[in-house]
Amino acid sequence: MKKILLASLIAISFIQAKELNPSMQGFMNDLSVEAKKQNPNIQGFDYARGEVIFTTKQIGKKGNPISCVSCHTNDLSQNGLNEHTNKVIEPLSPFANPKRFTDVKEVKKWLRRNFKDVYNREGTALEQGDVITYIINKK
Amino acid sequence: MKKTILTSLLIAGSLVAGSLTANKRGVAPVSDSFYMKECASCHFAYQPGLLPSRSWEKLMGNLSNHFSTDASLEPADNKIILNYLIKNSAENSTDYKRSKKINDSIPKNETPISLTETKYFIKEHRGIPSRLIEQKEVKSLANCMACHTTADTGSYSERAIKIPNYGKWED
C-alpha cells in the first residue's frame, strides 16, 4: 500500500509542469521568499488559488467585468483574442507554446499590466506565484 | 525690387521643393523590431509617420493608462521607443504623402493621441456605414488591417481595401 502511494506520488511529480529554465526558477524562488516574508504561514504556491485568480471576473480598469479568461480563454492551449483590440493572442500554456514562461522580463511586464487591467492593482507575490503555477500546470 | 524677386524665387523654390519631397506614397513602413515587439503585441503596429512627434511624446508619457489599458514599459525601453517614433514621426517624414497630409490636417495647438481622431482620418473614413465598422471582424476603425490589406507595408491605397462582409471599396 505504502509503495503504491509512493509510486503515485512520484508519478504526480512527473506529470508536473514543464521544467522552468533557471532564470524563471529564480523568479519563482524570489516570489516565494517575498510571499513568505509577507505571511510566514504560507506553505507554497497553489494551483486552486491560481485558478480562482485566473477565472474570477472583476470590474477592471476599463470599468467593465473582465477576467484573465476574457482574453486568454479557458483553454490555455488555444489562441485567445484581446477583448480590447480584437487581436489574436497565442496560447498561454507552455505545453502548447514553448516560448511562454522563458523570459522573466516578459513575464513580469505582462503580469504587471494584466493584473492592473483586471484587478486595478499589481498582483502580490503570492498571487503571481499561484497564477503562474496554475497556468504552467493546466492541461 | 531685387529683394521682391529674391523672396518670390525663394517662395517658389520652397513650394517646388515641398511638392517634390512628398513624392512617396503611403507612410514609411515600420523598420524597428523592438517597436514591433513592444507596440504590436496588442494591436497593429501603427507607423510612426501617422502622428506628429508631440503626439508620440504625449502618448508615451502615459502608457500605464493607455486607452483604458496598462501598456507600461520600463523607463529605458520607453525612451528607446520614443526616440524611434520621433525620428520617424509625421513631420519628420513629409516625403511620404500620407504623413504630410495627416500632419498638415492637425492644428498646431492640438495634440491628438488617436490618429483616428485627426481631421484627415475622419474625412477619409466618414463614408463608411457604421455597421461595417462595428461588426465583429472589424470592431473599431483603429483596426487598420481589417480593411487595409496592405497596411503593414505602409500602403493604404484604395485598391488594397477589402472590407469584411462587403468586399472591395469603390466610391
Radius of gyration of chain B over all CA atoms, rounded: 18 Å
Shape of chain A: globular
Give the biggest sheet of chain B. Answer: 2 strands, antiparallel
Radius of gyration of chain A: 16 Å
Q: Briefly, what is this?
A:
Chain A has 139 residues and is mainly α. Chain A has 6 helices and 4 strands, in the order αααββαββαα.
Write up what this structure looks like:
The complex is a heterodimer of chains A (139) and B (171). Chain A is mainly alpha-helical and 139 residues long. Chain A has a single domain (2-137), classed as Cytochrome c-like domain (Cytochrome Bc1 Complex, Chain D, domain 2, Orthogonal Bundle). Chain A contains 6 helices and 4 strands, in the order αααββαββαα. Chain A has helices at residues 2-14, 22-38, 47-55, 68-72, 104-119, 125-137, and strands at 58-59, 65-66, 80-81, 88-89. In chain A, the strands form 2 sheets. In chain A, strands 1-2 form a two-stranded antiparallel ribbon. In chain A, a hairpin with a 5-residue loop joins strand 1 and strand 2. In chain A, helix 2 (22-38) crosses helix 6 and helix 3 (47-55) packs across helix 6. Chain A is globular, with a radius of gyration of 16 Å. By secondary structure, chain B is mainly α. Chain B has a domain at 27-124. Chain B is 40% helix and 2% strand. Chain B contains 7 helices and 2 strands, in the order αααααααββ. Chain B has helices at 2-21, 33-39, 53-60, 75-87, 97-105, 119-125, 130-134, and strands at residues 162-163, 167-168. A two-stranded antiparallel sheet of chain B has the order 1-2. The N and C termini of chain B lie far apart (50 Å).
